[in-house]
Design a protein that fits this description.
- The protein has 13 helices and 15 strands.
- A hairpin with a 3-residue loop joins β10 and β11.
- The longest helix is centred in the N-terminal third of the chain and has 28 residues.
- It has 5 domains: 128 residues, N Utilization Substance Protein A, Chain:P, domain 4 (2-Layer Sandwich); 68 residues, OB fold (Dihydrolipoamide Acetyltransferase, E2P) (Beta Barrel), CATH 2.40.50.140; 75 residues, K homology (KH) domain (GMP Synthetase, Chain A, domain 3), CATH 3.30.300.20; 65 residues, K homology (KH) domain (GMP Synthetase, Chain A, domain 3, 2-Layer Sandwich), CATH 3.30.300; 29 residues, no CATH class.
- The chain is of the alpha+beta class.
């Protein structure tokens, strides 16, 4: 069958509209024609179809296996039948192909072909979308909020793909207005019967990591390393950084001039406060740094507990060390992996005469205390 240039042009148009390779479209059409032909013949034929993408010619052939005893007349010939049909050179086990030209497929066959083509194109499109995103899990994507109704929020990540933003992946209190553009972490891609299910996140610590890599050249280049990140999305985060170059201040590189770099990241995350601290392989110094901006006076291990420290701060630093609703110490503990017990260090004072008499009392006993003049 020769369908001509108009047929090839139609395939090219589908290729452009569906963003699918023309080879996939052609293979879908070939499968559709096989299905339609079998329905047209109402038999158990072994059929092959080949489409010439240059000329638009379609070759449809029935395949017959040469056998000693025929089990399926629709797909098998004896050696004698093969010779009668003009295939005298074939032997047992060979295959004969007979080209057919069914001019009148009929309405039912045509409808079958149409349905198969549509389904195969959908399947191919879904597979391409899955492959496109499955290789980029954990990457940063920019999307436009497409639908925000109740608990359902859809984000359009490209011209033909929407992603879900589940409730647990949203920043508490953040507004998701249709048309608004935000950056997301590509969290998961799964196959479903309705196509790929793509999930994005605004709360995952890796989103902050990707934003830091995007905004701070020293991190992208590897001069500054991110050693640990913890977040309570939308309110506060702590990141521990280290420099591989003695001439580069890791905190200064992340914060930027007048805080410009870290401020732009904070704004992208709805005003989330980001503490940048220096990583240290000495746990006690790392904990001290992690409790920033509080100033720690003294630290000591808690011997009866594993990976636990008692941290002493002055009274005026207590609220900073603990943070609002315990957030600062909680994040510091998660960042360092150490349990942290905050204590107030009582101020030292000079001994008084009363203290002196108390000491004498302990040493000499009650009788001496009673004989001493009252002060």
């Amino acid at each position: 069958m020769l369908l001509g240039r108009d047929f090839v042009k139609a395939l090219k148009q589908i290729e452009a509209e569906k963003c699918l390779p023309v080879e996939i479209i052609a293979s879908s059409l070939e499968a559709a024609m096989v299905s339609a032909y079998k329905k047209y013949r109402n038999g158990n034929q072994d059929v092959s179809v080949h489409i010439n993408l240059a000329s638009g010619e379609i070759m449809l052939a029935e395949k017959y296996m040469i056998v000693e005893e025929v089990q399926n007349p629709d797909a098998e010939w004896t050696l004698g039948t093969a010779r009668e049909k003009g295939h005298g050179s074939l032997d047992i086990g060979d295959c004969a192909y007979v080209e057919v030209n069914p001019e009148n497929f009929g309405r039912i066959a045509a409808q079958t072909a149409r349905q198969v083509i549509i389904q195969r194109l959908k399947d191919a499109e879904r597979q391409i979308i899955f492959n496109e995103f499955a290789d980029h899990i954990g990457d940063l994507v920019t999307g436009t909020v497409f639908k925000a109704e109740g608990d359902q929020i859809l984000v359009r990540v490209n011209d033909r793909t929407d992603a879900m933003l589940p409730k647990e992946e949203r920043i508490t209190g953040e507004e998701y207005i249709p048309g608004g553009r935000k950056k997301f972490l590509l969290l998961d891609v799964r196959k479903t019967t309705r196509g790929p299910r793509i999930v994005v996140s605004r709360t995952h610590p890796a989103l902050l990591k990707k934003l830091l890599e995007l905004e701070i050249p020293e991190i992208a280049e590897g001069t500054v390393e991110i050693r640990s990140i913890v977040r309570e999305a939308g309110t506060r985060a702590k990141i521990a950084v280290a420099s591989l170059d003695a001439n580069v201040d890791p905190v200064g590189a992340c914060v930027g001039n007048s805080g410009a770099r870290i401020k732009s990241i904070s704004e992208e995350l709805g005003g989330e406060r980001i503490d940048v601290i220096v990583w240290n392989n000495d746990p006690m110094q790392f904990v001290r740094n992690a409790l920033s901006p509080a100033k720690v006076t003294k630290l000591e291990p808690i011997l009866e507990q594993e990976h636990a420290l008692r941290v002493y701060v002055r009274q005026d630093q207590l609220s900073l060390a603990i943070g609002k609703a315990g957030q600062n110490v909680r994040l510091a503990a998660r960042l360092t992996g150490w349990k942290i017990d905050i204590k107030v260090l009582e101020p030292e004072r000079m001994p008084t005469m009363q203290d002196l008499f108390e000491d004498i009392k302990k040493v000499s006993g009650e009788s001496l205390w009673e004989d001493l003049p009252k002060v």
